[in-house]
Every structure is written in C-alpha cells, then in structure tokens.
Amino acid sequence: DFLAEVYRSLAVLDGAILVISAKDGVQAQTRILFHALRKMNIPTVIFINKIDQAGVDLQSVVQSVRDKLSADIIIKQTVSLSPEIVLEENTDIEAWDAVIENNDKLLEKYIAGEPISREKLVREEQRRVQDASLFPVYYGSAKKGLGIQPLMDAVTGLFQPIGEQGSAALCGSVFKVEYTDCGQRRVYLRLYSGTLRLRDTVALAGREKLKITEMRIPSKGEIVRTDTAYPGEIVI
C-alpha cells in the first residue's frame, strides 16, 4: 500500500529533492524512494541535511550514497564544518567527472587536456539530470537555513515544469482521494493543461462526472481557496 501511494504521488512531480540526514545516512526508506524515482525517470537532487549536528561524517554519507543509491552523482559544494560551517561552490574540475565520463566529446577534450567551457558542462549536467541519470548533491541544514538558497537555485535551473497550456483541453491526473470526517470526498489533482474553474463539471476518465463545488491550492505553505486553477498546479 505504501509503495502504491508513493508511485501515485511521484507521478505528478516535475522533480524531487531526496533528503538524507547527515547523521543517519542512507536508510532503507531512502533506498525505496530513490529507486521509485529512478524507475519513473523523475529528475532528482539529493540534499544532505543536518550537517550542523555534532559528529557527522560527510565523506561517509557521500560514500553510502554512491554504494547504496548511485555512483552517478556530482558534488556541488565544498564544506568546512569547523570552526563554523562554510559552504562554497565546488569549482574543482574533478567534481565534473560523472558528467564528463559519460559524454564522448567532453571525455575526448578532457583526455587531450583541452579546456572545457563551464557552459558545456552545465548544459550536459542539465540534460542528464532531466534524463534522471545524474544526481547533484547539495549540503545544508534546513533548520538553520544553511544551503537552502543554492538548493532552490538548483531546483529552478534543473527542473523543467510543463509548458503553459491554459487554452488547451482540460487534462489532469488524480493521485490521491480521501474523505473528511464529514464524509466529504477530497480529490488531489495535478493539472497538466486547460483551466479549471469553480462550478465546472468535469469528466473523470470518461466515466462519472464531477461538479467542482470547492477548490483549494497550496500557496506559501498554506492551503488556500481559489476560483481558478492553471496548468502545473496541484488542486484539491
């Protein structure tokens, strides 16, 4: 049941951030989620969280990621934990090994000692992340806000949302249905195209028709009422 719900929910994502505790490393649940993401070809960024906790061994955590999840990772930052935590962009060319070695043209240049532009490296990184064959690794502490901005920048640059198709035919995917204590059905929908409006009547997979009597969307950490939903949005 857990796996079935995971697959239904993951199916509506443009990309995922897989969070791993720097203290606990890769757990069984982490492996289940990661392999589900790979099976569904969902672009994934790995975020090693809680680096501010005492006694963390980041090298060990990264090695466990390589051994238990995938060797196709690219470490995006260097980390200094003492005397204070400092995160910096990883500018070492060796950090790009996973990108270079899987592209014949880049590999030829690298072996020949020819310079490779950052633009070409970034473009190849983006392509492979979108193919779910490369997984950037970022560090931070969500509790303290460390490393969050670089992570958000990566999500913005690497994940490609669906195009705006507001004038196209209405199309969406229901990934969850639940009932309130009052017996009211609550449907979770990812809208792919078209515009959904309050009081619209829509067909569900060619079977029953459903009249929209109430709509809510996630907004800034809250669930708020709305009269209109657009492509790319999660609608309740």
Strand order of the largest sheet: 1-2-6-3
How would you spell out the order of helices and strands? HEHEHEEEHHHEHEEEEEEEEE
The average pLDDT value, as a whole number, equals 88
| Shape, principal axes of CA atoms | globular
What is the name of the CATH topology of the largest domain? Rossmann fold
- What is the total domain count? 2
pLDDT < 50 runs, ≥5 residues: none
The profile of the biggest β sheet is:
4 strands, parallel
Helix content: 25-40%
Strand fraction: 25-35%
What is the name of the CATH class of the largest domain? Alpha Beta
Keywords: GTP-binding, Nucleotide-binding, Protein biosynthesis
GO molecular function: GTP binding; GTPase activity
InterPro entries: P-loop_NTPase, Small_GTP-bd, T_Tr_GTP-bd_dom, Transl_B-barrel_sf
Pfam families: GTP_EFTU
Task: Please outline the helices and strands.
Elements: H1 2-10, E1 16-21, H2 28-39, E2 44-49, H3 58-68, E3 73-75, E4 77-80, E5 86-89, H4 97-100, H5 104-111, H6 118-130, E6 135-139, H7 148-158, E7 171-179, E8 185-193, E9 196-197, E10 201-203, E11 209-211, E12 216-219, E13 222-225, E14 228-229, E15 234-235
Parallel strand pairs: 1-2, 2-6, 3-6
Antiparallel strand pairs: 4-5, 7-8, 8-15, 9-14, 10-11, 12-13
Helix pairs in contact: 1-2
